[in-house]
Amino acid sequence: MSEENKSPFTEHLGELRDRLVRSFIAVGIGFACAYFFKEKLFEILIAPLVTAMGESGNARMIFTGLPEAFFTYLKVSFLGGIIAASPVLFYEFWMFISPGLYRTEKKYMMPIVILSVFFFLVGSSFGYFIVFPYGFAFFLGFANDTIQAMPSMKEYLGFASKMLLAFGLVFELPLVLTFMARMGLVTVDFLKKNRKYATLIFFVGAALITPPDVVTQIMMAIPLMVLYEISIIGARVFGKKSKTEGEDEEEESMDDDGEVDSDTDTPEDNTSDKNASPKG
After folding, report:
1. To 10 degrees, the CA torsion angle through 45, 23, 171, 177?
2. Where exactly are the structural domains of the chain?
3. Does the structure show a pLDDT above 90 at 253?
4. Which end of the chain is less congested by CB atoms within 10 angstroms, N or C?
């Protein structure tokens, strides 16, 4: 890339500012829309806990401060706004990175954005439908005749929102590693060689993100291990090609832009052909 085509640092900051503004606007619109359904959204959010508590006959939540319920509904609306605006957030993120890609690589950006939203929703759904019921049943299992679980709205919202966002983001692992492989930052051999270290990192990270129980940690670490294997497949398919293949790809892209074709004879070749031809 020539010096004339390089954007100065201030332009990058300006682009970052514009994309952050658009992201905040999208979250704000999502927040305003979600606020009209705040009670329904909170009912959906606490449904796994209510189901688990209903088995013990004590399906009830409390709030310990007068403004706690009000601020909880605000936070629920904000969480709903983030999830609703996730397509815009992922789009702005990947579009900010796209100037550093080749023209032939930029055509993958929209599929990457769509897959980012898909994996985020799949990860959040996995946490909501799979992890929450088993995790809540484990925690409520410590209740007895003298000890009763009385979760507050504030504490539950903080726990649930962290878990949903965490599962949604960790499910982006295949896209991130595949993108890094495409950029040449990692290779398939590197991912295979460091599989055991990645597994250790997954269990340590799951222990830090999830509550301190083995069941929830395993339910996050195992999907990460599966996603890591998917990342290896993605790196093999979409990873950066060898040097020879990369040069061929650049030559093809130059031909598409109207540059000199590698198969076209140059003036030097024509001159040598004339000198080599027999005189008639």
Report:
1. -170
2. 8-169, 172-242
3. no
4. C
